Amino acid sequence: MIYLDSAATSLVKPLSVGREMLRAMRSCASPGRGGHEPAMCAAETVYRCRETAARLFNVPDPERVVLTMNATHGLNLAIRSLVKPGTRVLISGYEHNSVTRPLHLLGAEILVAESPLFDQDAALEAFRARLADAELVVCTHVSNVFGFILPVYELAGLCREYTVPLIVDASQSAGILDVDFTRLGAAFVAMPGHKGLLGPQGTGLLLCGREGEPLLAGGSGSDSREQTMPDWLPDRLEAGTHNVPGAAGLTAGMQYVLERGTSSIAAHEQTLLAELTERLSALDGVEVFAGPTGTQSGVLSFRLRDFDCEEAAQLLTSHGVCVRSGLHCAPLAHRSAGTLETGTIRASLSPFTSAAELSRFVGILGELLRRIR
Predict the structure, then answer these.
(1) Which of 9, 45, 95, 233 makes a 20 to 30 Å CA pair with 332?
(2) Into how many domains does the chain fold?
(3) How confident is the model over 2-20, as pLDDT tens digits?
């Protein structure tokens, strides 16, 4: 099997992730629900996850790291904390449905900073042109469809200049690119645990520059007499029993990222991305969506002339190649890039992807194209 769908979820993970999850399952109870040893072990495991995330993302206080089920959960917490019906929200032209659907559901007035694919300067200017009309900005760090790296740090500076809060969706950048919470100064930064952070599915993080409003209400293990959620983080946003094995696995994944370094991981993916771009571009009938150096992470979309993307992906699957096809839950990004009617096939890399795997993938695709013709 050749796995090229890490933008959906990482499949190959450090061995320590599974070991830590098994340890937690065997030794941890529920954090904050007792003073006995298994409960204290759970509390320590969860806090270690917060501490590790705080180190990785430069969060001054680990209590501002909220554990979530996934990035969608975190984005809903963030958006619902700052958006009311009619709130004017400025977004990029590359947002995922995890941003646009909550905004539609809440009745926000959505403004789009439209810009061409892989043009960071144009993206920044598009935001600048409309910031005066916005009450909130939400921006993805990296497009899940095209790997387009948006200029979030420069945008964060603009938001401070206009005193507009910023929510960053770091779903495709956390664990791969530099995500510095303090430098961003964002209201919230949301991310999954199961992609670049190499943790298990069902985990995520919300880095909080603001207190936030609860999405769920229930037991928190603290202040049980009161019938309102606690007014402090992280308890305010974490109702119910934690996914302790998930937190243990996520800590191990983040520890791997810390030890290897995001710069090393990014460099590995950039090398492979350049090779894959060159080799796919050499195939007749393949249109590759590639940007200049520094504008794209390890996500590469392409489509085939006169052949349906989803049918092609299914053929690749039958030959052991795992890619994603279609709109990738991001129709706005496809509209921006002019691929809404066709979709794309997406190949996405990980720290464990090898050049040999890419060579085999291109060879399989080339043979399929020859057979089709």
Answers:
(1) 9
(2) 2
(3) 999 999 999 999 999 999 9
